[in-house]
Write a structure and sequence with these properties.
heterodimer; A: 586 residues; mainly alpha; Cytochrome C Oxidase, Chain A; 19 helices; 69% helix; B: 67 residues; elongated
Chain lengths: 586, 67
């Protein structure tokens, strides 16, 4: 049966198989690229401003730029790409289209409308003609307050992503009716488990926005409890990290082995990894709040324990993915203990981009362990170290994997061959080099206490003292890295645009993903019991969050003490700032 | 098994099955990674703790939220 179905899909692109779905996926990818283009350019503006290489914006506007950079890249770029990949994964692996393509367009349009509302709200911070403000950074918790349109936009975007999840579940239910005895194909399993923890974690941010922040912004309630909104944000804020990472993991599991010339080492291990992410992604958010007063250290300790358990699926992934690449390399003739590395297809930009992204993720694993440790975290908390860390994770492991994947996906959904493989290969290498400069320097500057989220970290009568090197050298590395990353970004976008206008549609690869050495038949059926894993995930969230939330509400009130919002876009009299600083610092 | 899984590669010179495959190179790479982690943890002692005061979790009362 398999062979005959194989022949029906042989040498056919995704566009040939699912033309209607390909259009939605292409639209989602382009939404993602537009966010990447704007957000990436703003990153350059910030890097040059902070390092005092080129300052052409007002320091107060830095936070508008920072908010746009964070929201557009961490939320918009990643999630639009995710919905595209997951729609591809579900339809390809189930070998059937979505149940109703109008529903698919509906959630995509809802996400676009949400993004436009959020983007315009932020833009109001620098354009006087737009009466909005949203200098609340990507984390948007109180006491920073945004215009209601910002929160409404976020709600539309998140609800759109919920409907996308519902779309994948509907498609899977329809397939299950026709195939009642078959195991869930791995790519669909990955999309569904990821969707489940997305539902679980976004409940926190939905509660935060709809009950507290939006009514507060509209003036319906006078104040909120900032610690409560912070905690509800981080309840969502760490899981969102895994939400954008899971499509990258999916690519490493089901594309890298194929590109290497081999098969996925173990389908059961991949399932275990995604189940672990479903269980553990959410009850860890308090590890972002190790320095927050008002949360007892015992609860922080529970969050740290859960976080350390999260290393397990990532280390399992390191083993499974590298073993799959080694399998491919040996099938391609590679030999020796490490000599097989030379047999990998390093001239293929899709492979090289994903492999380098995985390598960067291994480095990010180390700084992540430092962040996760409660006592060591105190030394790097809120410093530029953390920014260095997440530029390795979302900025490289995710972004570089997505860009590399786009070199394969855009031809699949447009039916047009990639414009230039050489440019693509140069682009992924340049991104890797640029990020090595920038992220390494950010980590080092965090070690001597340089703060994050600061427009101009230069102070009168105080100099940072790096143990090795100088501040000037570190700033130069950041600025150089940012320029290289921007050039790489431009190369990527140019290749994507020219691919879309490419007349060449010959020699496109077929729409396939990696086979397995050890298939789902080798794993217990209980791994596919999504209800069971969801129930355990809910219990873990209840255990991890009930007492801290009760304690926060008990001590600070549900709507908090009387807290007025801060709107950073509005000019503040420096004398007033000094006065308020004196109030809190006797 | 889904229909769209890749069955063969053009650059493939031999087929290695599940039983005969021994990922020794992967074990070596993972071993090197763990070695780097251990060395970085040792290095961290010199970077962060030497010359700084100890940073520790508080007494029992603060752990359970009573103080």
């Amino acid at each position: 049966m398999e062979v005959t179905r194989m022949s029906s899909t042989a040498s056919r692109t995704y566009l040939d198989q699912f033309p209607a779905e390909a259009k939605v996926i292409k639209a989602a990818f382009w939404s993602s690229f537009m966010a990447l283009a704007i957000g990436g350019l703003l990153g350059l503006v910030q890097a040059l401003h902070r390092t005092d290489v080129l300052r052409f914006i007002d320091p107060a506007d830095y936070y508008t730029v920072l908010t746009a950079h964070g929201v557009l890249l961490a939320i918009t770029f990643t999630i639009f790409f995710l919905v595209g990949i997951f729609t591809w994964a579900v339809t390809t692996s189930l070998d059937r289209g979505v149940v109703d393509i109008r529903f698919t367009w509906a959630w995509y349009i809802m996400m676009v409308v949400g993004t436009i509302l959020v983007g315009v709200s932020i833009l109001g911070g620098v354009v006087d003609a737009i009466p909005t403000y949203a200098d609340v950074l990507f984390t948007f918790y109180a006491p920073l307050q945004a215009h209601p349109a910002f929160y409404v936009g976020l709600v539309l975007f998140v609800v759109g992503s919920w409907l996308a999840g519902a779309d994948w579940f509907r498609t899977w239910w329809a397939w299950r009716k026709e195939n009642p005895d078959e195991r869930i194909p791995l790519p669909t399993f990955m999309a569904l488990t990821t969707t489940l923890f997305w539902y679980l974690c976004t409940l926190g941010v939905a509660l935060s926005i709809l009950v507290f922040l939006l009514p507060w912004s509209l003036g319906i309630v006078d104040s909120v409890n900032p610690l409560l909104t912070r905690t509800l944000f981080w309840y969502f804020g760490h899981a969102v990290v895994y939400f954008w990472l899971m499509p990258a993991y999916m690519m490493w599991y089901i594309m890298l082995p194929k590109l290497s010339g081999g098969k996925l080492f173990s389908d059961p291990l991949a399932r275990v990894v995604f189940v672990l992410f479903l269980l553990l992604s959410t009850p860890v958010g308090i590890h972002h709040q190790y320095l927050d007063p008002g949360i007892a250290e015992g609860y922080k300790f529970i969050a740290m324990t859960n976080t350390m358990f999260l290393l397990l699926p990532s280390l399992l992934t390191a083993f499974t993915v590298v073993a799959s690449m080694e399998h491919g390399a040996r099938q391609r003739g590679g030999t020796g203990y490490l000599g097989w590395l030379k047999a990998l297809p390093w001239r293929d930009p899709v492979f090289t981009g994903m492999a380098l992204a995985g390598l960067m993720f291994a480095a990010a694993g180390f700084s992540g362990m430092i962040n996760a440790g409660m006592n060591i975290n105190y030394l790097v908390h809120n410093s530029w170290w953390v920014v260095g860390h997440f530029h390795l994770t979302v900025g490289t492991a995710v972004a570089l994997t997505f860009m590399a994947a786009a070199y394969w996906f855009i031809p699949q959904v447009t039916g047009k061959a990639l414009w230039s493989r050489q440019l693509a290969l140069g682009q992924v290498l340049l991104w890797f080099v640029g990020m090595t400069f920038m992220s390494n320097a950010m980590h080092r500057s965090g070690l001597f206490g340089m703060p994050r989220r600061t427009a101009e970290p230069q102070y009168q009568g105080f100099n940072f003292e790096p143990a090795v090197g100088t501040v000037g050298e570190i700033n130069a590395q950041v600025a150089l890295g940012a320029v290289l990353l921007t050039v790489a970004l431009a190369m990527f976008l140019l290749n994507m645009v020219l691919t879309s206008f490419n007349d060449d549609s010959d020699s496109l690869p077929a729409n396939t993903y990696a086979g397995t050495l050890s298939g789902p038949e080798d794993s217990p059926a209980v791994l596919d019991n999504l209800k069971l894993w969801t129930a355990i995930a809910v219990v873990l969230v209840i255990v991890g969050y009930t007492l801290p939330l009760a304690s926060i509400v008990d001590s600070g009130g549900l709507f908090g003490p009387d807290i007025s919002g801060f709107q950073l876009a509005i000019e503040t009299d420096p004398a007033l700032v000094l006065e308020s600083v004196r109030e809190v610092m006797p | 098994m889904a229909s769209a899984t890749e069955q063969s590669e053009t650059d493939q010179v031999r087929e290695i099955g599940h039983e005969e495959y021994d990922p020794i190179g992967t074990a070596i790479l993972i071993g090197i990674y763990f070695l780097i982690l251990v060395l970085l943890w040792l290095f961290m002692y010199f970077v962060e703790f030497l010359g700084n005061g100890p940073t520790v979790v508080g007494a029992l009362l603060t752990v359970v939220g009573l103080a």
